[in-house]
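ugh ok so i messed up the first submission bc i forgot one of the chains. this is the corrected input, ALL of the components this time, i swear. 531 residues overall. if the numbers dont match what u have on ur side tell me asap before i send this to the collaborators (the ones from the other lab, u know who)
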Amino acid sequence: MDTLNQILVTGLTLGAMYAMSTVGLSLVWGALGMLNLAHGVILAIGGYTAYWVIAQMGFPLVVGLFGAMAMGALLGVVMYFGIVRQMLKSKDFETNIIIATIGIAIALENLLLRGFGGSAIPQPIQFSGGFWIGMVYVPWQNAIILITAVVFMGLLAWFLQKSRHGRAIRATAQNRDAARLMGVDTGNVYIQVLALAGALAAISGIMLSSMTTLTPGMGADPMIKAFIICVVAGLGNVGAAAIAAFALGMIEAGAQFQFGSHLGFPTLLVIVIAVLIWRPYGLFGREEVERL
Amino acid sequence: MTGGPLLEVEELASGYGSQLVLHDISLSVREGELAVVLGPNGHGKTTLLRTISGLLRPQRGQIRLAGQRVDGQRVHRIVAAGVVHVPQGDLLFPDMTVLENLQMGAHLPAARKEYQQRLQMVHDLLPRLAERANQQARTLSGGERRMVGIGRGLMTGGRILMLDEPSLGLAPVIIEQIYEVIGRLRDEGITIVLVEENAERIAELADEVHLLDHGHIAWHGPAVDLMSRPELRATYLGG
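and heres the new structure output, hopefully the right one now
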């Protein structure tokens, strides 16, 4: 029973972090047909921005959080005006943008390396202590990560489902030409989506580095996992991605306890491969997914 | 009742990349008129509508709506100026409900202000859409999808309604229903540009007909004239 609860705490924390790093990637894929391989480095920059604002500039934690979100959003907007807007016109956008974002990722990671060095730095957004639920000790750190993720997922779901702008984003993802014929300024939608994804990535960067440390390459591993989760859920399906993130977090936590921590990720991969053989378009994906 | 020119297309050339589909199109549609663009598949009917609504940028020529130039503008501005385009194949939002699709039609601020009245009007005209309000668009039948497409366009309001082959792929009995709806819209004085392949169905409905042949307007005139000249139909529409 204890082990099970421990797995639950770890799995939910992992799931929360994966969900935060996945929804942005999924949103951008869905709305723009863009696989953003700079997503991982934006996540790292979010973590470093919080560190810089809090530990080096001396601002309170909340300022660090919002500063990181603003930086993530800004990077999204800069990417739109810098490359996405021009490349969207090309016929091979989907392939070209992958190469372009790899380039951006390498450049930005090297900037981090120059600015902050290669050695690991602790994330200042940390919460010590914890509480007991029955026989299970829950660190505040884990609880706050989970609560933050649930709050932001809820806000995002509300925004996409209920607000006019959110509906326009979904419309653009489902049929770009039709959205334009309804008077949606799709350029604006792309900016909003990239900014939103950047801000969410920054939060997930803070979460991840608070559980480990800050390093310039810290975004690579969560981005690969985020991509896997997107594929399992069905690319571009944001709600399914969040659910799949929690499911895979639980599975990874279970596998870590059962087989040892180094086998968590391989177990995940085996399951993913099995899922994709069974359902090539993902658990919630459909064959006729429209590529924009 | 028809008035002055609402839509004017002048010496329009358009196409995909270097491949021109429309070479030199001029036509004008008066306020309150139902104009039909007739022509066989692949002669540029859809390209014409896509160019007017801005999905395609014209390579030459002018498009004016109520005297104001709209060619070269971005789609959302052209829509805001009053051009409503119900595209071929409906292009619904498949993972939204019928009601959400209609709400998307009223996306622009001007349309949102009249959302309630318009929704009532659309539901009166197409009662099936009220019955299916909460159903996902992807689960609808072909005829229902067509109705959502038209209803969504009507939610936008606008000054001119362009329908791209509303009969395409539907059973004859459904086509009749759709055409009945188009007739009612015309009777309400809505300016309509209707694109079709088949001359028979539009005979009683159309005011003016434009025959499209290989990217040119080959003939235009009142619908009654076309009906009294079988040789014209034989030449351009294959009988």
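quick check: Chain B has a mean pLDDT of 93. that seems consistent at least. The CA atoms of residues 128 and 144 of chain B lie 7 Å apart.
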